Sequence to fold (176 residues):
Amino acid sequence: MGLAKLPQPRVLDATAGLGRDAFVLASLGARVTLVERNEMVAALLADARRRAALDPVAAAAAARTEIVCADARSLLGPPSSASVGGPAGERFDVVYLDPMYPDRGKSALAGKELQLLRELAGPDDDADELLGPALANARRRVVVKRPLKAPPLAGRKPALAFAGTQARFDVYLVAH
Fold:
């Protein structure tokens, strides 16, 4: 994410889901805008943020988050748009994409939280459509979380890739 290189970087988590990654980033000092298009999931995020704000340990991270219920594509704008920008035309240092992993067709079930999220939000069949607008909006980089063996988002090769045991982070650097 390159957080160490910027004081209080602005991060757009364009596929917020249950907000875990965004909360980790906020805990590390980033100001994070979480975008979730599913109204029910966005309401769950807002409730979690409200409860975190009451916790002395989590309050500072909660204060660095903002939740927006919208389709991220509408906030990022089309890749060629001159009016690209997030809420109030804002651009972000980093745009983070973690689209719902495709169903692997294996018999082992995903964790309970992921099962719930899939049930509420459905698949991210349009995830490839986020990369272009994300690249147009980001000032520094776009980071995409992918399954280890999945092809890059939108078939576009990243500048860097960091593979863990369960996932891979593809990093697209943006010239500024």
Notes: The beta strands are 10-13, 31-36, 65-69, 92-97, 138-147, 160-163, 167-173. Residues 18 and 113 are 8 Å apart (CA to CA).
